[in-house]
Amino acid sequence: MTDYINIIVFFILISCGYFFGKHAEKNHYASINKREKKMLKIPTTNSRHPIGEIPDVMKSRLVHGNVVISVDYFKRILAGLRNFFGGPVRSYETLVDRARREAILRMKESCPGAGQIINLRIETSSISQGGKNTIGSIEVLAYGTAIFFYPEN
Amino acid sequence: MFLTNIETIPGKTITECHGVVSGSTVRAKHAGRDIMASLKNIFGGELKGYTELLGESRDEAIDRMKSQADQMGANAIVNVRFSTSSVAAGAAEIYVYGTAVTVE
Q1: Chain B interface disruption, residue of A44, A66, A98, most B CBs within 10 A
Q2: Contact between residue A137 and residue A75 where contact means Cβ atoms under 8 Å apart
Q3: Which candidate among A42, A44, A47, B59 keeps its CA 20 to 30 Å from the CA of A148?
Q4: What is the extent of the structural domain holding B16?
Q5: Distance from CA of A36 to the nearest CA of B (A)
Q6: A60 and B7: CB-CB below 8 Å?
Q7: Residue A102's domain is classified under what CATH number?
Q8: What residue numbers bound the domain in which A48 lies?
Q9: pLDDT tens digits, residue range A52-76?
Q10: Would you say A137 and A126 are in contact if contact means Cβ atoms under 8 Å apart?
Q11: What is the per-residue pLDDT for A134?
Q12: Residue B62's domain is classified under what CATH number?
């Protein structure tokens, strides 16, 4: 009897993960794409020098944005299977992609009016969930130096 | 206090270098947040509780680094770097370090 219950719970969890996770991912990508278009006006580089010729610098400051994102149950099971057979783990690729883009967006949104962001650095760490050694959730931190220019007259 | 993660402060000149300053915090997660997080582990999506937790601890680490630089008599920190490590299951250490300088 308990075996049946376990199997039923497992399938409920998998289908919850599949439907809610898919929905959440779709919405998140839509929001990322929309906000990335809006934030294109702040050029961002990971080199230490600003891009192109720049006007006089008014001020500069450190900006950062972070996000913790978790993978859904369905994808975790899929990744577990991949662990067994080997090969690329596609189900985690979208997780890290979303997390990085979201962190960069939050960093940009924290400094509206900045001319450029230079020396962008991205730091990724996984937050272990209890004793199991699955990835589960990752944290991404993006940081850089925002420089503000004098308004052109 | 000016902070950047490049070697200089754009628009200013460095006149004196005081040495390395750092700040760190270790934060454990919260039982209430943990329950929400385990739910989110089924459905997927952002763990807002953890995002906030890590953001707050990072701000605190930066504050500690700033007060250390203040004691040295510096007015800016250049070349700031962040690093995160999980020391134990459920606890995260956030470490931030940089070089304290005086700028004009």
Answers
A1: A66
A2: no
A3: B59
A4: 2-103
A5: 18
A6: no
A7: 3.30.110.70
A8: 2-149
A9: 888 888 888 999 999 988 888 888 8
A10: yes
A11: 54
A12: 3.30.110.70
